[in-house]
Automatic annotation (TrEMBL):
Signal peptide: none annotated. It holds the Pfam family Brix. Residues 1-101, 289-320 are annotated as: Disordered. SMART domains: Brix. GO terms for cellular component: nucleolus; preribosome, large subunit precursor. GO terms for molecular function: rRNA primary transcript binding. This is Brix-domain-containing protein. It comes from Exidia glandulosa HHB12029.
Length: 345
């Protein structure tokens, strides 16, 4: 009816009047509904259960290519979260290491920004140690460092890579047998850059892994579980959260305080950063060997190592992957993102 009015001024007045009436009718409807729901809370619960908004998170489609061939033999897993670290079944199937020892290092020739970020990582992970990557150790690959760390009792290796004087990637290696994961690193904020941050204590924090629902997500989540002791120290009231949302892993660390028997407050400690999985490979990285004897300088100590083969020694992964070449169990490719609702973790 409004479009049939030829006079422009009259048409605008009628349109504004109809819009006001429509807005007032919706307001009256909300007020009446709120009054009814106040008397009967079950009406509100039923309304919220029926009117669920459709988002990318609740419409996500898990990417399980290696399960398609086994769908006829084995049923798909019905669980949507990682197994609890305190459950007896998980301890019997995959026993976790009682003590975690993490080695943190960098790529060769990094700047102060990467060293500051590594100091934050050492403060986050209990029983962790930072070792500078000397310039003379440029010839030694991550595989050599992984073998060196495995012989000295380390359970995990974290290598922070730098590009253009900014930390841009993290390589996480689970020792002594792998797997190895490569993450893109973005949105770094150190503790001193967070306004009103809390001070960290030496207590072992609690670990919360949220949103890891696929088989690949369970593998990545268990890799982060090995970085923390299985039994946290609740006296410190510290919690580390790794939240997976649309395949982006958001890292946060907080301290919680009980204001009353019903209210809990959170204060962020830091640091905060975001990870994006690029590839996952079973086994350790490639170790490069040389014929002549050479001294490996790590943490200021020199060790003489005799290398007999001049070729590269590669550890071939066991098991079947997802069809990716070069022994990769999974690798991100542009062709995989066929739908905005498909997620991998």
């Amino acid at each position: 009816m409004v479009l049939k009015i030829k006079n422009k001024v009259k048409r605008e007045q009628v349109f504004r009047k109809q819009r006001r009436e429509h807005t007032q009718a919706k307001l009256n409807q909300r007020v009446e509904r709120a009054a009814l729901e106040k008397k009967d809370p079950a009406l509100r619960a039923r309304r919220l259960a029926e009117n669920v908004p459709r988002t990318q998170d609740n419409m996500r489609e898990a990417y399980e290519p290696h399960r398609e061939s086994e769908a006829d033999d084995q049923p798909a897993a019905s669980t949507s979260k990682l197994p609890d670290s305190d459950s007896d079944e998980d301890d019997d199937q995959q026993p976790r290491t009682p003590s975690c020892k993490v080695l943190v290092t960098t790529s060769p020739k990094v700047t102060r920004a990467t060293y500051d970020f590594c100091e934050e990582l050492v403060a986050v992970f209990p029983d962790s140690e930072f070792v500078r990557r000397l310039r003379k150790s440029r010839a030694f690959s991550i595989g050599n460092i992984a073998n060196w760390a495995s012989k000295r009792g380390y359970t995990s290796l974290i290598v922070v890579n730098e590009d253009r004087k900014v930390p841009n990637a993290i390589t996480l290696v689970q020792l002594p047998d792998g797997p190895t994961a490569y993450f893109k690193l973005t949105s770094i904020e150190l503790t001193k850059q967070i306004f009103g941050h809390a001070r960290a204590s030496p207590h072992h924090p609690e670990l919360i892994l949220n949103g890891f629902v696929t088989t690949l997500g369970h593998t990545v989540g268990k890799m982060f579980q090995t970085l923390f002791p299985p039994l946290p120290e609740f006296e410190g009231r510290q919690v580390v959260t790794l939240h997976n949302q649309r395949d982006f892993l958001f890292f946060r660390r907080h301290r919680y305080a009980f204001r009353s028997t019903e209210k809990v407050a959170l204060q962020e400690i830091g640091p905060r950063f975001t990870l994006k999985l690029k590839w996952l490979k079973k086994g350790l990285p490639t170790a490069r060997m040389k014929e002549k004897e050479e001294k490996t300088e790590v943490d200021g100590t020199a060790e003489t190592s005799t290398e007999e083969s001049a070729a590269k020694v590669e550890l071939k992964p066991t098991g079947t992957g997802t069809g990716v070449d070069d022994g990769y169990e999974w690798m991100w490719k542009k062709e995989l993102e066929t739908s905005r609702r498909t997620f991998f973790l």
